[in-house]
Amino acid sequence: MQKVTDNIFLLVLFAMLGTFILASSFIFFFMRYQRRIALQKEAMQKAELDHSDQLLQATLLSQEEERKRIGRDLHDDVGASLSNLKMIMSQVVETVPGSKTSYKPLIDNIITTVRNISHSLSPPGLSLFGLESTLHELFDNFNTAGTVKVSFDNELGEKLDSLGEQAALALYRVIQELLSNTVKHAQASEVLIRCFEEAGRHIITYQDNGKGIQVTGKKPGMGMQNIEARLRMIQAHSEMPAVDKGFFIKIII
Amino acid sequence: MNSNFIGVVVPISILLPLCMAIFRWRYLHAAARYIFLYLLVSAAINGIAILVGKFLHRNNMPLVHILTAAEVLIFLFYYKTLFGHAEKRKLYLVLGGLFILFCGLNALFFQSIYTYSSYTRSVEALICMLLALNYFARLASDTESSSRIIHKPDFYFNAGIFLYFSGAFMLFIFSNFIITSISRSNFYTIWNIHGALVVLMYLLFSIGFIVCKK
Shortest Cα distance from B177 to chain A (angstroms)? Predict the structure, then answer.
């Protein structure tokens, strides 16, 4: 029988290296496979998120359209009809002697209410007078109602009105939602809204002196989701840094 | 590389994962603590082995027999805790019991406690490789987990176990054979490669401890 002359040292060395290379290749390909799976998963999650975002944005847009239509109908049809009614009533009252009822304030009150509802559904001043003036009107309403004192400091000046109608409407709705949240939940007495420029970007900050909100890792509520969706629609985003007292949000446009 | 590498650098390198584990102790999950226990036992037995071998000039091979049994038991507890399936827990205990029995029989009838326990070391390597492969298989079929594998400490622990035992498997099989068949310098070369594998495993364990989160 032929004598085996193989070098045992080399054989063991090759065997060790061979099994080690096999094991390391396995781990390398396993990592690559897992990375691909993770990327696919991330892409799917992003697509799902984008889809739900698009759905939410479409809902908000159609909601806005519907509000506009109802507001217009209320203002043009119901408002006009009430004005006609007021005119007819004044003629009727004049022909019926002794029927001096207080119908006028009642009808005026209805007309005012209808106009307010119509304006809140779709602010007409936004396209006519711009965001600044419409916001002033909104804040006046809150200040008049006396529930909360709203202060507005606009350092942006006319730049605020040059944002475009869609951006103006989105920002208006966001501020409206924030004010509504403050009145409903914050138990605040004062709200300060500031508009200024920072690093070439328009900034709107909103701060109240209420009880604030607890920042948790949980999913935000419907109101905050709508705010985020509206801001994303106009390529803006928000930040909510922790503050000592009250609620603070910074909108970056 | 010379004998200083396996005699000094490799034993000292165990301090790195040990320190990492102590430093990140509060973030370590239950299974990761078994890896720490493995390192601790390994450091203690290797330390005693160095003392016995280098300073007392006595045969320290009995300690290798003890270390082999201890390692397998600790790794089995690690995987039992990691997989945590109640119905299969007995399997790990049975496997541990059988391995201890095998170690005892091997020491009594096949390989004296004063020789290198190549049979039990080889079986240990096989068991550990299979358990690590089982972990990778479970990881591949896990569609629920959202975190990436590079953020999973157990991926690093298992990569360390798998790479070390795969590389050292052939050495364990032929360890008693090569003592008499190759030159002293070649013998050191092979054991230095083994030392490098140990250091690689310790490095991966250290990364595993670093990525342990709350």
Answer: 9
Q: Within an 8 Å CB–CB cutoff, is residue B185 touching chain A?
A: no
Kind and range of the H or E element at A115?
helix A103-121
CB contact under 8 A, A12 and B190: yes
Q: What is the pLDDT of residue B2?
A: 57
Nearest by Cα to A151 from A193, A207, A210, A95: A193
Span A76-102, pLDDT tens digits: 888 888 888 888 887 777 776 665 566
Look at B178 and A9 and tell me if their CB atoms are within 8 Å: yes
Q: In this complex, do A16 and B193 lie within 8 Å of one another by their Cβ atoms?
A: yes
Residue A118 belongs to a domain: no
For residue A48, being part of any structural domain is answered with: no
Domain boundaries, chain B: 28-138+147-210
Are residues A34 and B145 in contact, defined by beta-carbon separation less than 8 angstroms?
no
What CATH number should be reported for the domain holding residue A214? 3.30.565.10
* Structural domain for A152, as ranges: 125-253
Type and span of the H or E element at A194: strand A190-198
The pLDDT mean for chain B works out to 90
Question: What's the whole-number mean pLDDT along residues B143-170?
Answer: 89
Contacts of B189 in chain A (CB under 8 A): 9, 13
Interface mutation target, options B136, B149, B203, chain A, most CBs of A under 10 Å: B149
CB-CB under 8 Å, B163 with A24: yes
At B8-20, the pLDDT tens digits run 899 999 999 999 9
Question: Which chain A residues are Cβ-neighbours of B185 within 8 angstroms?
Answer: none
* A217 in contact with B, Cβ within 8 Å: no
Q: Smallest Cβ distance to B148: which of A12, A16, A38?
A: A38
pLDDT tens-digit profile of A205-251? 999 988 887 766 556 677 787 888 888 888 888 888 888 888 899 99
pLDDT at B172 over 90: yes
Give the number of domains in chain A.
1
With a cut of 60, say whether residue B189 has pLDDT above it: yes
In this predicted complex, what is the ipTM?
0.85
> What's the whole-model pTM score?
0.69
* pLDDT higher at A222 or B157: B157
Q: Is the CB of A23 less than 8 angstroms away from the CB of B148?
A: no
Distance separating alpha carbons of residues B168 and A17, to the nearest angstrom:
9
Q: Which of B146, B162, B171 lies nearest to residue A12, judging by beta carbons?
A: B171
Interface touch B167/A16, C-beta < 8 Å: yes
